[in-house]
Amino acid sequence: MTTPPSDSRRAPRGHHGLRTHREVRLAARPAPGARLTDDLFEIAEVPTPSPEPGRLLVRTGVMSVAAVMRTLMDETTDVPMRPFALGEPLYGPAIGEVVAAPGTGFVPGDLVQYDLGWREFALLDPSDVQGVDPGLLPDPAAYLSQGPTAWMGVTRGAEVGPGDTVFVTGAAGGVGSLAGQAARLRGARRVIGSVGSQHKAAILREELGYDAVVLRGAGPIEDQLRAVAPEGVDAVIDSVGGEQLQASIAVANRGARIGLVGALDAQLTDSGTPTTAIDTFSLLTRGITLRGTVLHTDHLDLVPEWHDRFGAGLRDGTLAFPHARLHGLDNAPRALRELVEGRHVGAVLVEL
Description:
By secondary structure, this protein is α/β, with parallel strands linked by helices. 26% of the residues lie in helices and 24% in strands. The two termini are 18 Å apart.
């Protein structure tokens, strides 16, 4: 990863005051199964544009990284999102402040959410941004949580209800760390999560309200899940697939609902092939529902509902926003690398 000299970046130009700004580009594609390394990224210095009438110039304040970004670094992907292009800046969720917006309904100082992170400034059409109410959530960065996906998985994927025993796979991730809390909002009696370390297990139990944890690498997931859920599970929010989904089906009660919100096992393995052997006989004989859900194509109506609940819960202390926050655009590649390596609990953000 290379960083150009920055002695000219602060030279004034027009109303935004910066002649140039920086963006993170994809310099090379990772080999199949290879770990992310700094040389896959390039930090380039580019001219900072002035918006023509009808467009906005936004200064990025905070951006988020997600596991799907590792998949988008490949040349082809089964994910319904465009892959990152070689030599072009990456993209992803961000919150920023409007610097200039001639001929639009926005004014300088407005906070907006958009999908052109990985750069210090973004030039956008008004249709590509959403206004952010700074008073709704205590921290505007919380708009970048994966809470809407977690809420979707809980309410429409697994249809969690009062008295349910709930299993959340990938429970220390951006979705899982909020899915357990969301299940409690729906009246779940018992919430169980899967994690990759004892340290994360302790955080789930002590800080995020999980009743029990199964540990990847500590023996078959099915055996562990049966031990902590001897009466079976009623609802599952699965963002992983693979062995954990198979264990969920094996331990699921009659009429259980399994909501699929991700496929990390396939995205982060050597092959990247999104396949999991499914016991269809169990689905049939026990009436188990297996439902895939995608927020951005089918369930965007849940976003404001979640934000209302999230804001209230953050203020009264009944909900938490687990996240790590790195600082500076230089650390954006590191943030993605550490997320993929599972070093953090919750969302991983970069504050610019």
